[in-house]
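INFO  loader      accepted 1 record
INFO  loader      residues=438
INFO  predictor   begin
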Amino acid sequence: MEEGRVLKWLKKEGESVSAGDALCEIETDKAVISMDSNEDGILAKILIEEGSQSVRLGTLIALMVDEGQDWKQVEIPAPESAPAPLPSTPPSSAAPTGAVSHKVEPRVGTGQLRLSPAARHILDTHGLDPGQAKPSGPRGLITKEDALNLLKQTGSRGPAAPKAASVPSAAPQPPQPSQPAHPASTSQAYPRPSIPPISVPGKPAAPGMFTEFPSSNVRRVIAKRLTESKTTIPHSYASIDCDLGAVQQLRMDLAKDAIKVSVNDFIIKAAAITLKEMPEVNVTWSEEGPQSLGSIHISIAVATEKGLLTPIIRDAATKGVQEIAANARALAQKARDGKLLPEEYQGGSFSISNLGMFGISGFSAVINPPQACILAVGRLRPELSPCLDPDGSPALRQQQLMTVTLSSDGRLIDDQLAAQFLDKFRANLERPQRMALI
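INFO  predictor   done
INFO  writer      dumping tokens
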């Protein structure tokens, strides 16, 4: 956690506080937690109001005084002052005049100009100097509207010849519209050659309508981690079909004894057992390189109103399916309520995302860094397949098939190892009784 959001203050200014009392609710990147007081006193001043976002870790959010002190006279520390700007270099009195200043001054910082494609096209078409446009876009970007405003100011005079960078002569040469601009003068205006006009730019279109809405810390962290995953991890994908007929039969047998377990619980158990049999897949990538993990903690994806959270079934290989089911239900409910503790969602070694309950046949999931794999699970679907009767005659049998797709980090797991993992995972899942013996 690097920053948080103050959701609600549970104490008011001037209210007495005892050690252990909850002062406020903080929204972290995964859950909402309460911030407790470490000592007795009076809450004298709230410095960060409710709803404040992107509050950095270590920021002073409130002041407390001891019992008996006048809390209204608390001294509020001055905010950290920004560093004073560096003094600008005064112009030299011996600066050259005339042609030399004309050559250098207008083009200072030209290489730092940022133009949108539409603005560049307009300036190319009409031969306008981008240095004369007033940028209004983010970080000094010259937009299409800026280019059109410059065009209105200069008037529709058609393509103009670019300015020469050399010393101006007494009698300037007339522009030659029929000849292409000199490469040196074009590169001086902006680092891109002129393009023949394709169409005359018209009036800027009306801006599109949209509605801004606040994004939670959870959503921002999810966006950051997904971008990190897809841009830094070479994803590799492999899929396989599993027959869950034996799992379904075992679930019905357990239901007769009032033991309720889901298909996803068997999937978690099968993945954990397979990782135990193939420790070379239970790895992670760090700045120092690949690292083998000594524990098997399965992260399960849970959809919440604020985004996708991944609580962890710890030591899943050593737990029975019934215990895994109980843990999964409790963690999923805590995730939806926003009450997950950091140790309940940090430190997973392998992730599982199941969209079968939404009718999805198959999909590819994004790896949750620094993990190396995530297993995407689709829905159960009945299919007929050819087989042989006991007497040897051809027949058809119905299978309950499920497609799973493994997304793996190509730096750690090659295609052959991923295929071996899926084959062993299928064998464990299709023979659920075998998992209890491993």
